[in-house]
UniProtKB/TrEMBL annotation:
GO terms for molecular function: DNA-binding transcription factor activity; transcription cis-regulatory region binding. This is LacI family transcriptional regulator. It holds the Pfam family Peripla_BP_1. Keywords: DNA-binding, Transcription, Transcription regulation. SUPFAM superfamilies: lambda repressor-like DNA-binding domains, Periplasmic binding protein-like I.
């Protein structure tokens, strides 16, 4: 069967005996076109199955009204909330999104960056994979002065715009809180320390121990991938430690919840035997029993701030190349998993 020819503004103009300029303006709802003429043209376009050719229009304007998003995973409450924030602001401003994810692979992240470059996105909002080193793969964007804003997982020593929380402060606060509950043997369960977020939380943990006269013990540092499996493995390792830790700072709520559940299955009382603090303030932190003390990581705010700054740059209202780091407020939320009566 022969494929039906795409309807153009020339077809509509010929049918209605009007100029193509009049048809084009009417389809763009131009105020200079008579209301009745506009309705006649729009009705004819609908009946004929006309589709506006965004691609051709964008090529003429050298603009696609599209923002590329690069995230390290999609199976995450935090990332979902960031995307919700980005989507809210970008939709209001008339921008479409192309979302890619690296599955924690630098190789895949590099391919995604190149793909978005060839798709001619107007700008990028990105969070880096576990093993990403440097930003050379973003150089095509930098060379063409296409704006890039990083969030959460960033290269701290770069001059690029970034939206983050104070991971060091939060790591310090979480550890300090556990110490104030009488804990002295605190295990930390975290991820790749070459990535800024985990390195800074770890530094906060170490400094809080030091400031309270507690010796750092590298045997109490468990580097994991912060998955469901990680939570179970962490619990099993904690159970084998002699003496068993009296507190745990787990830098991901889902892993913390799985770890708590596994410990409880082995008769460990929380917080009496081991006090636990998570990170992110995911929904699961309020569902587990006892409810999980955690750090509020405001994903929606981060997404909105990143998108708002990128779009403002694209409109010429601000210059994000002169913006270094935007720090979003985050706080420790104290719940029953870490509070000892006493």
């Amino acid at each position: 069967m022969k494929e039906k020819k795409e309807v153009t503004i020339y077809d509509i103009a010929q049918l209605l005996d009007l100029s193509t300029a009049t048809v084009s303006r009417a389809l763009q709802d131009h105020p200079a076109i008579n209301k009745n003429t506009k309705k006649k043209i729009q009705d004819a376009a609908k009946e004929m199955g006309y589709r506006h050719n965004n691609f051709a229009s964008n090529l003429r304007k050298q603009k696609t009204n599209t923002i590329g998003i690069i995230v390290h995973e999609l199976n995450s409450n935090f990332i979902t909330s960031v995307l919700a924030g980005i989507e809210k602001i970008s939709t209001e401003a008339g921008y479409d999104l192309i979302i890619t994810h690296s599955s924690e692979s630098f190789k895949k992240e590099t391919a995604n960056v190149l793909n978005l470059f060839h798709k001619r996105v107007d700008g990028i909002i990105a969070s880096l994979a576990f093993d990403t080193k440097g930003l050379d793969h973003f150089q095509p964007f930098f060379d063409k002065k296409i704006p890039v804003i990083f969030f959460d997982r960033v290269e701290e020593n770069s001059d690029n715009a970034k939206v983050v929380i104070d991971n060091y402060k939060n790591g310090y606060q979480a550890t300090q809180h556990l110490i104030e509950q009488g804990s002295k043997r605190i295990v930390i369960v975290t991820a790749n320390l070459s990535r800024n977020v985990y390195a800074q939380r770890f530094k906060g943990y170490k400094d809080a121990l030091f400031d309270n006269g507690i010796a750092f013990d590298e045997n109490l540092v468990l580097i994991k991938d912060l998955s469901e499996k990680c939570g179970r493995e962490a619990a099993e390792q904690i159970l084998e430690m002699k003496p068993m830790p009296d507190a745990a700072f787990i830098t991901n709520d889902f892993s913390a919840a799985v770890c708590m559940q596994t410990l409880k299955e082995h008769g460990i009382r929380i917080p009496e035997d081991i006090a636990i603090v998570g990170f992110n303030n995911d929904a699961i932190s309020k569902i587990v029993e006892p409810q999980l003390t955690t750090v509020n990581y405001p994903g929606i705010d981060i997404g909105e701030i990143a998108a708002r700054n990128l779009i403002a740059h694209l409109k010429g209202e601000v210059n994000i190349t002169q913006t270094n780091t935007i720090i979003v407020k985050s706080d420790l939320i104290i719940r029953k998993s870490s509070v000892r009566k006493g």
